Every structure is written in C-alpha cells, then in structure tokens.
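Please decode residue identities from the backbone states below.
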C-alpha cells in the first residue's frame, strides 16, 4: 500500500504540538505520540482505522477520519486503490468540508 502525506500535514502537526507544549512540554510529546499511533493504525488497516466523512446527507466515500483518543483532533485521510493520502490534522470542532480541498492534491501524486 502506498502511504503519502500531504506537504501541509507536517505543518499542522508541528503547530498543534507546539500549542500543547506551551501548556506543558510533556503534553506536546503526548500529542505527537498519539498522532503517530493514529498514522500507524491508518497505514496498517485504512479501511478499519477511521470513520467515513458525512457532510449534510452526503457520505464522502474517498475520505475518512481517525479520531485521536485523548485530544479533540482527527487525522483526515483519503484512499484510492492501493494508496492512502494523509491530508490534514483537524480540530474536532472544525468542519471537515473545509479540509477536503486538500484531497485535490491527490491528483498530483
């Protein structure tokens, strides 16, 4: 399975990790570890690692979300054939529709 990461994902991770580290250094490390664990779960079983995205009454079949356990964030990822694209690290209160545009990056890979 091909595993691709959107170039902006690393920025997302560093930004949120840094915000948690400002509160408490260990909290930033825990956040980072949990994101890495989520990425490993997605890579190991992408069909089972996350939930489908539903916007209004439409299910976006090519997009899924993997919720973090201890933090109010999720990893947004897409699947096509034997490829996975990790697109965004999103706060749970955000509208996933705003982040789906990163799936267009998919066409360039």
């Amino acid at each position: 399975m091909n595993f691709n990461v959107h170039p902006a994902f690393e920025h997302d991770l560093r930004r949120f990790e840094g915000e948690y580290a400002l509160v408490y250094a260990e909290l930033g490390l825990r956040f980072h570890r949990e994101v890495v664990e989520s990425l490993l779960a997605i890579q190991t079983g992408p069909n089972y690692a996350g939930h489908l995205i539903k916007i209004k009454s439409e299910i976006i079949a090519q997009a899924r979300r993997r919720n973090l356990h201890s933090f109010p964030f999720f990893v947004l990822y897409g699947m096509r054939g034997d490829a996975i694209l990790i697109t965004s690290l999103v706060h749970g209160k955000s509208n996933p529709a705003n982040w789906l545009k990163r799936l267009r990056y998919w066409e360039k890979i």
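Observation: The domain at 2-108 is CATH 3.30.2310.20 (YaeB-like fold).
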